[in-house]
Amino acid sequence: MSTEHKTWLPTAKRVDAVVIGASAGGVEALGVLLPRLPAVLPVAIIVVVHVPPDGRGELARLFDERCGARVLEPGDKEPALPGAIYFAPAGYHLLLEQDKVFSLSVDEPVNYSRPSIDVLFESASWTYGARLLGVLLTGASADGASGLRTIRQGGGHAWVQSPETARAAVMPQAAIDQDAADEILTLPQMAERLIEAFGRGRA
C-alpha cells in the first residue's frame, strides 16, 4: 500500500466513526477537543484513555457535564450509535464487532494496558475500514501506534498530535516512527477540523 500522506477532512459522508486514544495528559487534551463538538453528532466517537481499574465511570461523567453530546460507557453487546461519545470502561478492553456492537474483554493487558488503544483501533479498523478516523494523542507508552497504522493501512485516516505539543510525547512519536500518521496536528488544528466537519458545540 502506498505510504503517501493524505490531507483530509472528515465529513459525515466519509466517516462513520472516530476513535481516539490517549494516556498521560489525555484528559486535558480531550478537554480541548470534545466539548467543542455539537450536541448532534453524525458519527460515533469512541475513546480509550489509560485509567486505573478503580476509575470506572469517572471520565464519562466528567465529559458528560462538559459536552453537548451524550457521553457514556458502553455495555457489552451495546450498539455503537452515531450521536454519542463512548469511553472504554476502566479495566476492560473495548472492541467493535463486525455488526458495529461493542464487546468488553478482560483478556490480558496489551502494551501493559487494559483498556488498550491498539485493541480498540484494530477492531474498529476491521469494522469500519476506510470510513474510520483514528486520532492518537499524548501518552507515555507506545500503545496505539500499531493500531493507528492498521487504520491507515486499511484505508482509514490517521491523525497524530504533534509530539512537541503533547504533555507526553512518547505515544505520538511512536506512531510517527511507525509511519502511522497521515497528518501531524496540534490540538487546536484537530478541533477546528472536527468543528468544520461536524459543527460547533459549547466550547
List its traits.
203 residues, alpha/beta, Rossmann fold, seven-stranded parallel beta sheet, two-stranded antiparallel ribbon, globular, hydrolase, CheB_C
What does this structure look like?
Keywords: Chemotaxis, Hydrolase. It is an enzyme of class 3 (hydrolase). InterPro entries: CheB_C (IPR035909), Sig_transdc_resp-reg_Me-estase (IPR000673). GO terms for molecular function: phosphorelay response regulator activity; protein-glutamate methylesterase activity. It catalyses: [protein]-L-glutamate 5-O-methyl ester + H2O = L-glutamyl-[protein] + methanol + H(+). Helices cover 29% and strands 20% of the residues. β8, α5 and β9 form a beta-alpha-beta unit. The longest helix has 12 residues. It is an alpha/beta fold. The protein has a single domain, classed as 3-Layer(aba) Sandwich (Rossmann fold), CATH 3.40.50.180. The strands form 2 sheets. The chain has a 7-stranded parallel sheet, with helices on both faces. The protein has a two-stranded antiparallel sheet with strand order 5-6. The chain contains 6 helices and 9 strands; from the N terminus they run βαβαββββαβαβαβα.
Provide the CATH topology.
Rossmann fold
Mean pLDDT: 92
Strand content is 15-25%
Strand count: 9
CATH architecture: 3-Layer(aba) Sandwich
Structural class: alpha/beta
Distance N terminus to C terminus?
A: 39 Å
What is the global morphology? globular
CATH class: Alpha Beta
Radius of gyration: 15 Å
Number of domains: 1
The CATH superfamily label reads Methylesterase CheB, C-terminal domain
| Share in helix | 25-40%
Q: Note the total helix count.
A: 6
Strand order of the largest sheet: 3-4-2-1-7-8-9
